[in-house]
Input
Amino acid sequence: MSVTLQRVKNKKQRKDFVDLPFEIYKGNAYWVPPLKSEEMKSLLPDSHPALRFCEVEYWVAYRQNKPVGRIAAIINHQYNEKTGKKFGRFSKLEFFDDPEVFKALLNKAVSWVKEKGMTHIHGPLGFTNLDNQGLLIEGFDYIPSVASVYHLPYYRKYLEDYGFEKEADWVEFRLNIGEKAVEKARYGAALIKKRFGLEIMRFTSKKEMLSYAPVLFKLVNRSFTSLPYVVPFDEEMVKFYTQKYFGVIDPQYVFFVKKEEEIIGFLLAVPSLSEALQKAGGKLFPFGFYHVRKAMKHPDVIDLFLGGVKPEYERTGAAVVLYAELQDQMLRNGIRIIETTGEFESNRHVINHWKNFDHIQHKRRRCFVKALK
Output
């Protein structure tokens, strides 16, 4: 029963690509299914503005006409120009515990990027840093946050046995807002505001918040430019990600900080939708929308989605002011649990901030890399 690979070209193949994880993770209490309709759209030509500077191919592996694995391969030419490297990416890797399936998938992705002149392949990575990044290697007994991922433990072993090595790790934390954290944040924020003349901007409506989306992405470009895997967001990409993500963002958890009239930083958090999406089972209708709406209105957990401060203002403590504001808003709504998104393990400045909370570092995900011979 040999394994065959088909490049995704038609609706059936797109459906097989999207449906496969639902079979692999069936009965798994921690995997959070995506919305199938959004996943199907993402496989269409011209579905993403990054395709102006990225090449991509998708494949499904079959055994006896049954989907048993999938993979995507990407070349982000803009990132390669920025770094001066020739790196391809693998993405959306999912497969049953089967060495032959895994080898067929990786061989195909490696062959494709080599034909394009690449010298290395790394991943899992998407088109940009706002797409899913990394492979879960610790924390298999926790539900991922909105900006995280879930994989099965055997994925790591297969990649390492194939010759992949660690390139970078993200670590994630679960924080409980206790009195110590509240008092320290409020005290520190008050001092910082007074010393540096910082003010918080809040929003009372989604319309008002959306009008500041371009400002937010300009801050992302300034504060994230030196991070791995990052390319700048242009106008088309800003529109794309605003439409993709801002529909599920509650304005009361979005904050800007400014000095005089200059906006210097932001923090964007969202009510956790992980359990709601599990109940939705990949579909918004007829019942999924109810679960998502309920989670938006009455969250038990807040996910940190995105935050940044202009590099020249990092030493002002602007981030402390932003986190203090988020904590106060959460406490007003009776919420005490925060799930952080992944921070690079080398980012001690942010990670050290979590020591003020009752916290656990419970998840780790990794980007792997392999030189091509």
